[in-house]
Design goal:
223 residues, alpha+beta, 30% strand
């Protein structure tokens, strides 16, 4: 089934000992990681020793001690986000990043109540609940799978209804592609760079494949 998400997001998470105060828009600009106008127009919420929060027209930056999070909700910037993260890693050659997360999120709009309910029933059948509770409904399901690429970590998938009230019959499908380097003697960002450079595109392709499969199974069972 072809994916036609109404909203998308990509989030990169790097876990390692970092100082949030370093990650000011000027640092990104001075290192050639974002354009000067992007840094100058950035909306800075807070930058201090405990947290760095700022955003521009395509990027959200959230840095805490031990974690860098970079996010965009604009699909054309997905490869730019990867390049930005690689640039950050190359600017921090002595930081031992221990974990990497490539995270994807799609909002899928269903055409009607029936197809929306069919999707929920496929992932979380109501039958086991009907004799003991009144009108059960799925608030979310999560599945964890092993990696098949030789790295430590897991692949985590989740589905939940969009409860924002902004639109009807919409579900959020998410994927956390988690790499762990804790079992290795990490002294630099090299492993994070290697995984990010090699697997970014295939990570999203795998998510597309899983999301499409779930939607297709739901469609077939709803016939």
């Amino acid at each position: 089934m072809k994916l036609n998400p109404t909203r998308v997001a990509a989030t990169l998470v790097l876990v390692g000992p970092v100082s949030p105060a370093l990650f000011h828009p000027e640092w990104f600009k001075n290192n050639g990681l974002i354009k000067g106008r992007e840094a100058d127009s950035a909306e800075i919420q807070m930058v201090n020793s405990n947290i760095s929060l700022f955003k521009n027209d395509w990027l959200n930056v959230d840095v805490r001690p031990e974690r860098i999070q970079l996010r965009t909700e604009q699909e054309p910037f997905f490869p730019v986000l990867r390049d930005l993260a690689l640039g950050c890693l190359n600017c921090l050659p002595r930081v031992p990043f221990r974990q990497l997360g490539m995270n994807w999120e799609y909002a899928i709009q269903f055409p009607d109540r029936q197809s929306y309910d069919d999707f929920g029933h496929t992932l979380a059948p109501k039958a086991p609940w009907l004799d003991v509770v009144k009108n059960p409904g799925m608030l979310g399901v999560a599945m964890q799978t092993d990696r098949a690429d030789g790295y430590d970590g897991t692949r985590n998938y989740s589905v939940r209804p969009d409860l924002s009230g902004e639109v009807d019959f919409q579900a959020i499908i998410s994927h956390n592609d988690h790499y762990s380097f804790d079992s290795k003697e990490v002294k630099s960002p090299d492993l994070a760079i290697e995984c990010l450079a090699e697997y970014w595109e295939s990570s999203r392709a795998d998510f597309d494949r899983v999301a499409s499969h779930l939607l297709e199974v739901s469609r077939a069972q709803g016939k």
